Each structure stands twice: as structure tokens, then as C-alpha cells.
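Weekly structure sync, notes
Attendees: PL (lead), two postdocs, one rotation student
Agenda item 3: pending single-chain targets
PL asked that the sequence for the first pending target be pasted directly into the notes so everyone works from the same version. It is reproduced below exactly as submitted, 391 residues in total.
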Amino acid sequence: MRVSSAAGGILFVSHDATRTGAPIALLHFLRWFKRNGNRPFSVLLGGGGELVADFEKLAETWSMDRSRWRPDALRTDLLLAVGHGAWARRAEERDAQKFAARCPPALVYVNSIASARVIELLAPRVPILTHVHELETYFRTHPSGPLSCLLAQTRQFIACSNAVKENLIREHGVAPRRVETVHESIPVEPTRGDRTREQVLQELRIPADALLVIGSGTADWRKGPDLFIQLARVVSQQRPSVYFAWVGGGSLSGLAQLEHDIRLAGLGDKIRLTGGVTTPADYFAAADIFTLTSREDPYPLVCLEAAALAKPIVCFAGAGGMPEFVEDDCGFVVPYLDVAAMADRVISLLDCRSCRLTMGAAARRKVAQRHDVSQAAPRILAIIERTMAGK
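Predicted structure, written out during the meeting:
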């Protein structure tokens, strides 16, 4: 391919449009870029998701999953069923390249290492800027071929946290001069629904005067929802009146596994699983404490969203970038996987309302001062322009 730099535009590539961190972070930036940038752009999605329409409102958008669902989809399914996945791959490659060629970009902006397969199909001959939202477990559990090609072809990297930058340098030999940290960001005023705390607690079947501890994320190993259950068990033994809620969806099997643990641990009356929700901020606003039980999380937006709502955060050291935010003023950082230590810190916050309020206020100030999109987006734009200029 096939694509030239004549138009001076940008092709933004996202691995999908699910309601998860990296696609949401890209949407935040593109909304700002639409208002403040001066270059044409388009969006290529490796797969679909709930946010496809949001991308389409901003720019011409193509989702590669459409390559699989054409009028001849039955024939495609039959080919796949008998082992002809290469046919579908060629259809994806053809359609992705045709879309990119409609508005030839001068730069391809790859939003996350998870988009490596898309870039392998696209094979661009223009500079690549890769925004990395992943840590080492992702690299080690995904096909090495596309990842190696992407790393080799990328001219410049943006890391969403210092932990991500250090991992790229230490584990993948990226030269320090080729990677710059721009911490994740959110709109300073989080999107809220119309529900009050009382309404959210009523929905969760939690008493109106109860204390609520929240965790959030996809129900998978990295996010540690199983550790959240362990945390709830330890805290409940000492503070029986406290309730817990995990905000986030996942596979049916993953959620069933969590429900299994909750049931056998005798916590069915204390833990709520919301599943996927469109306004997680409603639940964060109703909480008293936000706990990040992730084993590996580069710089989760959910923590910034909770902090913007003045919630103190408790997280694990060594699990990613969130200790860079929490520091020593807006929550606690405890040793990696030390659930007992996390429980101690949660209990200390539950027992001290003034501590919760003080740390929550510090968290809110820090988001406003460091992590608003209006502050991060100009830095990203400057990196885009330097990369296009070959600097």
C-alpha cells in the first residue's frame, strides 16, 4: 500500500470501538482534535463495539468487521467453517486498504498495540505513530509477528504512563528518545446520568445509609475482579455493614465464575455485579472509596473518572501506572497482591470520613490540574506534527 502522503491527513486506527480504555481515550482526543486540529482525518476500526456511532459522528469511519457481514455472508461463514480463514483475511485486507486509499494519509496513528494486526493488513508506507496503552502481559499473550512488525515500523511512541514507557524501553529495546509519556486524560467534567446516589443504591439493593466500595473493569484476569471479591471478604469480616459493587461487563463465563466465588464465599448479600453500563460515573459518584485491584493496568481511565468525582483510590504497587497518580495524597498504594494490606487501608478510610473527603478532594484537584483532555491533547498534537515532520 499503497497510501501516499499527498493529502496531509491522518488515519487513526483503533483495534475496536468497545467501551474500554483505549477506544474511549481515542474518542476523547478526536473530539478535541475535531475542534482544534487543522488536518483531515479518518478512522479505521479493527472491530466493532458500542462506540462505532461515536466515531462516525467525528469522521469517516470503517470497521473491519463489516468485511465479514456482506450479502454473501453465508458463503463467508461456510468458507470459515471449512478452514478458509485466509479468504476472510483477504477481504479484510482489501476493504481496509480501499478505505485508507480514499483519503491518503500522511501519517497513521495507531491507538494501542492491540491494533498491530490491522497495521499488518494495511501495510502503510507513511510514518507510524503508536500510542501504547498496554503492559507486558499483553505483549506476551498475543501473536509476536504483528507486534514485532509494528514496533519496528513505528517512528515515534506515546506511552500512557511512565510504567508503559519503562516497559517499552526495558523489554522491547525502544530507544528512550522515541517514546514520550502523555498520561491518560478525561474531560474534566465527567459524564453523568440523571440518577442520584439514592437511586443508584436503590438499584443495587443497598441501604441508603450504607458505605459502598467500588471496583471497575472488564471481568478478566488483568483487572482482578477475583481479588476484589477477596478484598470484600476480608473487609466484611471486620466491617459487616459495608457493601461492594463491581462495575463492568465481560464474558458470560467470566461473570459466572465471579458469581460462583461470591456465592460460595457467602457474600451474595454484600457484593453486586452491575455488568456493562453506559454511565459508570453514576456508580462511582455513589461510592465512598474506589479500589483498583488490577494485576496489570497501564493508567486506567476509571480511576481518573472516580478521582474527578472526589473518590480516594487504593491500588497495588507494581501493577501499572496508577501509583503515578495516587502518590501520597489521594489514596494509598499497597504492596502487589497484598489483599490484607489493601483491606487495612480501605477500613482506615471507611472509619475516617474526613480522610475520605480530604483525599478525594486532592484526587479531584489533581485530575483538573494534570489530566484534563484540554491539557493532554495539545501535547499529543505536537507529537503528531513532529512525527509527520520527521523530527
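Discussion points:
- Residues 85-102 form the longest helix (18 residues).
- The CA atoms of residues 353 and 367 lie 21 Å apart.
Action: rotation student to compare against the earlier draft before next sync.
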